[in-house]
Amino acid sequence: MSKSLLLGTRNPGKVKEITEILGDAGWSFRSLQEFTRVEPAEENGNTYSENAIAKARFYASATGLLALADDSGLEVESLGGAPGVFSARYAGDNATDADRRELLLSELTKTGSQNRRARFVAAVAIARADGELLNVSEGICEGTLTFAPRGNGGFGYDPLFVPNGYDQTFAELPENIKNRISHRARALIKTNEFLSSLTLL
């Protein structure tokens, strides 16, 4: 019996990133693109882990599959940790990635601070269709923010974020490097270890 795992996202960038990192775990992957009638899960948690767990349980129940879901955000030091868990909704529900980046840079300018330190945080959860939570992994990547977007890769806030130890943004770095050092990569590498050892569905 093939081990099938639903990736609880419709973001093609995330699907690509997740499948590349988890590719050697011995699982086949499906995404929400196949389940057009499944509504988006609510994200009412106060932490990334709470949101990831809620989404994994929701999508597992809705599809009957073992489901993986993640939640992540950008925490900017001079903005008191904002946008944090609201990163995806920072500029409103219908805003684009570019809208969110523009708002973030505008809010940073308003502070008058020269502090550009920030960090990405991610949580990845896996749940069964019956609601049982199997695993939660977290990852953090520290860095700084640029004054303008740079690079054509990645998604979200990637064109603004330069990880510590590098001169390029996540949107400029080769995927093989980003998929080793990013917050989501660090959480998924731990998830990969769990999936590789999981035999019972």
How is this structure best described in words?
With 201 residues, the chain is of the alpha/beta class. It has one domain: Alpha-Beta Complex (Maf protein). The protein has five helices and six strands; from the N terminus they run βαβαβαβββαα. It has helices at residues 12-22, 48-63, 97-111, 175-181, 183-197, and strands at residues 4-7, 28-31, 66-76, 117-127, 133-145, 161-163. A six-stranded mixed sheet has the order 2-1-3-4-5-6. Strand 4 (117-127) and strand 5 (133-145) form a beta hairpin. Helix 1 packs across helix 5 and helix 4 (175-181) packs across helix 5. It is globular and about 50 Å long. The chain starts with a strand and ends with a helix. The relative contact order is 0.17. The model has no long low-confidence stretch (mean pLDDT 93).
Overall 3D geometry?
A: globular
Q: How many domains make up the coordinates?
A: 1
Q: What structural category do the secondary elements indicate?
A: alpha/beta
Kindly estimate the percentage of residues that lie in beta strands according to DSSP. 15-25%
N-to-C CA distance: 10 Å
Order of H and E elements: EHEHEHEEEHH
* Main sheet specs: 6 strands, mixed
Q: Care to count the β-strands?
A: 6
The order of strands across the largest sheet is 2-1-3-4-5-6
How many separate helices? 5
Indicate the CATH architecture. Alpha-Beta Complex
Overall mean pLDDT: 93
The proportion of residues forming helix, as a percent range, comes to 25-40%
CATH class: Alpha Beta
Cα-based radius of gyration, to the nearest Å: 17 Å
- Runs in which pLDDT lies below 50 for 5 or more consecutive residues are none
What fold name stands as the CATH topology?
A: Maf protein
